[in-house]
Amino acid sequence: MAFNNLLNLAHSKVALKPPLPPLPTRPFLSAPSRLSPLRLSLRSEPPPPQRVRSSASTPSDGAAPSPPSSREEAVAQARSCLSTALQKPLNNSVPLKKLKRQRQARFRAEIPVVDDSPGSLARLTFDVFTGAAGVKRKGAPARLILVWPSAEALAVALREFKNWGDSTTAHAQLGSVAQDSLSACDAAVFLAPGPSQVEKVKAAAAALDPRPVVLFNPAWSFDEEEGEGFDAGARGFVGSFNVVYSFTGLEVRGLLSKKRGVLLRCVEGGRFGGESWVLMVEDDAPAKQGEFKVVSRLKRRPTIGEVETMLYNLMAANSPVTKSARFLREMVSNVTGGKAKQ
What's the CATH fold of domain 49-247+300-336? Predict the structure, then answer.
């Protein structure tokens, strides 16, 4: 059954929501509002307490990273992943001028927020990248340039960063980055560019090559990225960024139950290709209430439609209605002496 049809059924609505409530002074995490066709919404009431272990350190082999239990933990996870990813290309012993033939290091991180206002973006960017996100080059903090998507976003960032006590970070507007600013930085961070700005990001990244670049909170969904909104060239360029951190809160509602989940990718230790996209849901075991368990590991990033199908299938397999029907089939099988067909 198509997803649009499912949305029309009162008992099978899907709403992707943050697993945690917003903090009082800062915007909290949520699935991005630009995915409105999937009826993403926010929840104001606090959810049950969660026992979630920290992912500040590299998980052991085979262990899945834990979803963040707070905004601060999500920021810490993203900082850790970005710091590890940037450390190697920024401290390569071979001079940059000799690396022209090597592939430019490109990283991507996503922490969706409650709203897409310039103030929220500035606050989140400050939290993640202040102090160069903990990255050092030759013993000193790396020189990052933050490239904002509009004049309004740039103006807000300059004002807010100064208010928060940071007057040293370099800022620029996408499409108007001065060459001397690019020459003075060790890496660039492109903040929330829109689909129509991909070519500008591509041009700026080429001017920075071979220095690393980061794409942070792009203003489009993965489904849009894979759809007709991007031509092959833009899709190939955006796809060249390694996703080091991405977090999306999910909730699927069925007839008699609802289940919260998380789609997470958290690359730590620089082991690109080793980490998978992890789909987690709340554990139903009474002793593990509020904890998350892994239900699927995927080598590539799934679309929202694929995630929704997996969650629906999981709920159907564990719903009381489905279990009752299965029990009746087994009972008939025992009476007739035949084997029930599943």
Answer: Rossmann fold (3.40.50)
- CA–CA separation, 342 and 329 (whole Å): 8
Q: How many C-beta atoms lie closer than 10 Å to residue 226's C-beta?
A: 14
| Nearest Cα residue to 110 out of 42, 212, 193 | 193
DSSP for 226-283, please give it: HTTTS-HHHHHHHHTSEEEEEEEEEEEE-SS-EEEEEEEEE--TT-TTT--EEEEEE-
Q: Which long-range contacts (CB under 8 A, 24 or more apart) does 152-158 make?
A: 152/118, 153/118, 153/121, 153/122, 153/191, 153/192, 155/118, 156/118, 156/119, 156/122, 157/118, 157/121, 157/122, 157/125
Tell me how far apart the alpha carbons of residues 23 and 113 are, in angstroms, rounded to a whole number. 11
List the domain boundaries for the chain: 49-247+300-336
pTM for the complete prediction? 0.75
pLDDT, one tens digit per residue, over 25-84 is 333 333 332 222 222 222 323 333 333 333 333 344 456 668 888 889 999 999 999 999
- pLDDT tens digits for range 78-117: 999 999 999 989 987 555 555 455 789 999 999 977 777 9
E-strand spans in the chain?
106-110, 136-137, 140-141, 144-148, 170-173, 187-191, 213-216, 242-253, 258-266, 277-282, 292-298
